[in-house]
Amino acid sequence: MPTTKKLHLKILFSILLLSAFFSCDSKKTEQPVSPKNPHEITFISVSDVEGNLGNYRIIKATKDSVFAEKGMTANKTHKAWASAINPEIWKKLVSSVNITDLDHIKSSPSQQSVDGIDETFQIRTPKKSHIYVNAYADTIHYKQLQQLKEQLDKILPKEYK
Prior knowledge:
The chain contains 4 helices and 6 strands.
C-alpha cells in the first residue's frame, strides 16, 4: 500500500509540474523588439599596435560613450580614459562612413610581427561586423576610415592622440 501512495503522489506531482510548464505563454514574456536599421553603425573601434615594445592605442566608441586606452607592454604602462558623448557628436563621427562601401575595403597583411604597426578598424552594424587590418594600403577606399580616425582624434584628450 505505501508504494501505491508514492506512485500516486509522483504522478500527481508530474501532472502539476507539466501543466505549469504548458500554461506559460511565451508570447507574453517576450519583449517587443523594435526593428533596427541594418545600416546603422552601433560600434566603432580603432587600434594601433606596434611590434617588439608593444605600444598600443585603442579607441572604442558607441552612440553614447567613447573609451580610449594606451600604453606600452615593455615597461608596463597603461592609461585609460572614458567619456559620454552626445548624439550630435556621434552623428558627426559616423557621417564620414558609407556602410555600402565597407564591403569593398581590403585589408593588408599584419606588420606587427616585423616590428611594424598594425592599424585595425572595427565597425559594427546590427547586421554585420566589418574588421580591417592595415587598410591604408587600399588607397581608393581608405579615405573614409581616415576621416573616421580624424573625427575620433577630435573627441580625445591630447594625451590619447
